[in-house]
Specification:
Helix content: over 70%
CATH superfamily: MFS general substrate transporter like domains
Number of strands: 0
CATH class: Mainly Alpha
Largest sheet: none
Number of domains: 1
Oligomer: single chain
Length: 434
Amino acid sequence: MTNPVTAPMTDPSPVAEPTTGMFRSLRVRNFRLFFLGQTVSQHGTWLQLIAQTLLVLKLTESGVALGLVTACQFLPMLLFGAWAGLLADRVDKRRLMTLTQTAMMVLAFVLGFLTLRGSITVAQLYVLAALTGTANAFDNPARRSFVTELVPPQHVANAVSLTSALMTGSRIAGPALAGLLIATVGHGWCFVANGASFLAVLAGLALMRPAEFRSTAPAPRGRGQVREGIRYAWSRPELRAPLVLVAAVGTLAFNFQVLVPLMATRTFSGDAATYTLLSSVMSVGSLSGSLFVARRASVDLRFTVATCTAAGVAMTAFTFAPTLALALPAILAVGATSLAFMSAANTILQLRADPAMRGRINALYAMVFLGSTPIGGPIAGWVAEHLGVRAGLGMGAVATLLAATWGWWLLGVRRPGVDRADRRDEEPMAALAD
């Protein structure tokens, strides 16, 4: 495979951009537009996720139904993710995002209209969740790999971490705002607000300067390119290990959308306000974890495994928290450690993947993290229904600790296959992330 040719571009500033500071990548105009648009849109996304979760509970009072609607939303990522990544490598990412963001905007407005009419059914929720998930399956790898085209190489790690921070930071205000809207005007206006939030993304994309993109040559058409991407990821230990860790944790542990509302309403005998409180506190932790990674000069597999271990410990504490008062600091730790782990894994994949493969690698990441939800969500819902909510949470904690144990074994026993790769890339990695 030949290395892609970077498209020529002109730097609008004759002065070298600073390479230090937590928010250094925001000095780049195109990334700043992307970041601001995504900030608005991600808040809207959380409005919809919280409202959708509570609406399903209102209509069914079933943990299994929660698992199924979550599965409908993320199954397309599992089915189409690999081809979506290839498409992201082949086409203009800004144009692809414009199409996918427009589609999700229309679907949010349809969901809001049906809910405000009072005619929404669980079956319609399943269908709309599946259609939204399909659009997101094609949007996700394009959006993740697009970040690397917006900033110079020395800002890539910072831009990736700040993007993770905004994704998780939106969970602070999003759930609280959702709870307020649901209590005052109903679920439907949350969906309408989400639809309107996509306008910020579309405006940001339209205002960008294509001449300043750091684009790579599109991947040529050919046979077996999806398999080529999978083989490439599996042949590189520094890519394979984070993907395996994320797959294990994403499938069995990251089912908070199913289990946290059940923990709030059943275990702690709370209501929608209890759920939004837990979600907001977890989001504060998530934001701090993402910003912690953004401050680091380098991220390697050892750090990723360490954060995975910490996440497993925090999930264990949350599982056994006897009261809501003790559950709040525990879920704060869950948010901080789990998002530090995900941000670290994502940063490694972004920096160490060949630019010609970046779309496919990002698609694999989305598949093993989000695409595993259709498997893990119903399992977590079934366990919660039949064995208790704490059993569902405990399953995730055990899975995370076992994944971390495998990671430490890999670093200790198979050092020639993994740790040398880390050491070989350590200097350029530090240069990129500094």
